[in-house]
Write a structure and sequence with these properties.
Elements: E1 11-14, H1 17-33, E2 39-45, E3 55-62, E4 65-69, H2 78-85, E5 89-91, H3 94-105, E6 112-114, H4 115-121, H5 129-137, H6 157-168, H7 170-184, H8 187-206, H9 223-243, H10 253-264, H11 277-292, H12 311-331, H13 341-350, H14 359-373
Parallel strand pairs: 1-4, 2-5, 5-6
Antiparallel strand pairs: 2-3, 3-4
């Protein structure tokens, strides 16, 4: 059993199964007696420092009792997940946390609430946790450890203090937001949006991605450029894995697409300054190999899923976006909360808005949907 941080730390650092079992037992009794049954969860990972991204810390708040659980030292945290699943579970900006929890433990919480979603539905334009804490408590959170390597051990006190602050303030903020959502009649919007987030994460994580080398920006490339992009992507993966470093630290996706565009117009390609001689040689070998390969082996351009929009559809999309912006302005929220432009394009093509909007979004946009989609 161990506890880290300053002498007056009000949290427990848990890095043994025995300590975890003891703490969970205490929390079961605490939550049974506490009038507040809510819990909070946050996670830290090492995606900025290693090739294989992994979960490195679980920050837990059980009705005002805090713990930092080390998943690198405790392989089985199922008892903790079971405890959290028995209660309303609050996050801030849950998308990444839910993704990592699914990938690591194949677990999705029974019910989640997200203070970031609540803030946006109340019209907040600055909805990062630091901004919410500043606005609610007039406190400045230290974010110095935000990009730190959370796989390092032992974790220094300043990183532990940073980590526990990510769940320390969530419940008071939640109380404030829930009260305001109820006053505005938006609590059901909030619950629907939280469920939608969970479903989106599950659908995205379950989808098998084909051709992962087709990075953002490659849609404008032709087979020649795609061939060198694919070769560079595969080389970068190998180097990153070998050095246990994130791929972007070798070469960014934007850099690779830029090289591919230059290659298409027969510009000479020079590797980045500062690369080691081995990498420079391999870079030139990649380019030479693509030049020597027959064009029949080059990747084809991806077929666009969406067909060409008709003039009528474009007009419908513009009208619905204008209606969305008018409704959002009246509600004093961001228009994208009522559906992105991409969502509006999809519902116009499909012709059935209910397939693409949450109930509360559909209700707010119903008048415009009826007028635009049913018009001749």
């Amino acid at each position: 059993m161990s506890e880290a941080g300053s002498i007056q730390a009000d949290y427990e650092f848990i890095d043994t199964p025995k300590h975890l079992d003891q703490w969970i037992g205490k929390m079961r009794r605490w939550l049974a007696d506490s009038p507040d049954k809510r819990c909070c969860l946050d996670t830290e990972a090492d995606s900025l420092h290693h090739y294989h991204e992994k979960l490195c810390l679980l920050q837990v708040n059980c009705a005002g009792r805090y713990a930092l659980v080390d998943p690198l030292a405790i392989a089985d945290v199922s008892s903790l997940l079971e405890l959290l699943d028995a209660h309303e579970l609050w996050f801030h900006g849950a998308d990444y946390d839910l993704t990592m929890l699914r990938r690591t433990y194949d677990w999705s919480p029974r019910v989640i609430r997200d203070t970031q979603i609540a803030a946006r539905l109340l019209g907040a334009r600055q909805f990062g946790l630091a901004a919410l804490v500043k606005n609610t408590f007039d406190l400045d959170l230290c974010k110095a450890s935000q990009k730190a390597d959370w796989s390092r051990r032992p974790l220094p006190p300043n990183m532990l203090s940073y980590a526990v602050d990510d769940v320390r303030y969530l419940l008071p903020i939640a109380d404030k937001f829930v009260s305001q959502l109820r006053e505005k009649g938006r609590e059901d919007w909030f619950h629907q949006s939280c469920r939608e987030l969970q479903e989106d994460v599950a659908a995205r994580d379950n989808a098998q991605r084909e051709d992962p080398w087709r990075v953002q920006g490659c849609g404008r490339l032709h087979p020649k450029g795609l061939a060198v992009l694919k070769a560079m992507w595969e080389w970068r993966e190998g180097i990153a894995k070998e050095r246990d470093t994130p791929c972007f630290k070798i070469m960014s996706n934007k850099q690779m697409v830029a090289y591919a565009e230059q290659f298409e117009v027969d510009q000479s390609l020079n590797p980045p300054n500062g690369w080691r001689p081995r990498w420079k040689k391999e870079f030139h070998d990649i380019v030479a190999a693509v030049i020597a390969s027959p064009s029949s082996e080059w990747p084809a351009r991806a077929k666009k899923v969406k067909g060409r929009l008709s003039d009528t559809q474009r007009d419908q999309i513009d009208k619905l976006c204008a209606h969305r912006e008018k409704v959002a302005q009246e509600l004093e929220i961001e228009p994208s909360l009522l559906g992105s432009r991409g969502t509006i394009e999809e519902l116009v093509i499909d012709g059935n808005p209910a397939n693409h909007l949450m109930n509360w979004q559909h209700d707010l946009l119903a008048r415009g949907l009826e007028q635009v989609l049913q018009a001749d």
